[in-house]
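wait is this the right file?? whatever heres the structure
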């Protein structure tokens, strides 16, 4: 879902450069790509302290606000619960991480009347929807990625034609030597 959001966002921003081809639009796009693809969260491992990573949640939220049609259409096609992209991401994230939903709630059923707990070997066999819903969300994300590729195909040539008019600033020099890592 994260990669689909990145693809959707980058294609959308490239299309924005083609629609309104200003030096500022290309500079913003260039800066965005640096933060998304080159930036580091950890200054311990960063090649430069000048390029800080953009949090993936920002891109997920932006994608969700744009309400990509391929995601909505996939949910309708599969009969999955209607969710916006961010809500679906949060649901999948909860189930994928070692927290209550991802582990405890999935592999045990507490009986509050008797005070006992039943351990469950295969939660998907007990409740097939536990896997069907996240797979439907993943299918929707895949369709967003496919849509982004198609959109890029129609944006690519005009974007490349405009690119020489914009000269990106040089990459910042590393503020630390690559071999200086601990």
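ok assuming it is, sequence goes like this
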């Amino acid at each position: 879902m994260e990669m689909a959001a990145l693809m959707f966002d980058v294609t959308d921003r490239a299309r924005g450069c083609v629609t309104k081809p200003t030096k500022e639009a290309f500079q913003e796009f260039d800066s965005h790509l640096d933060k998304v693809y080159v930036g580091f969260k950890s200054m311990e491992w960063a090649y430069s302290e000048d390029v800080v990573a953009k949090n993936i949640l920002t891109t997920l939220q932006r994608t969700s606000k744009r309400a990509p049609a391929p995601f909505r259409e996939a949910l309708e096609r599969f009969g999955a619960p209607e969710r916006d992209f961010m809500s679906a991401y949060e649901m999948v994230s909860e189930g994928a991480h070692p927290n209550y939903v991802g582990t405890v709630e999935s592999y045990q059923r507490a009986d509050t009347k008797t005070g006992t707990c039943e351990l469950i070997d295969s939660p998907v066999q007990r409740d097939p929807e536990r896997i069907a819903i996240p797979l439907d969300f993943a299918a929707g994300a895949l369709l967003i990625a496919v849509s982004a590729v198609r959109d890029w195909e129609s944006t690519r040539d005009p974007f490349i034609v405009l690119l020489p008019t914009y000269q990106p600033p040089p990459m910042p020099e590393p503020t630390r030597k690559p071999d200086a890592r601990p």
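The chain has one domain: 2-87+126-170. so i think its the right one actually
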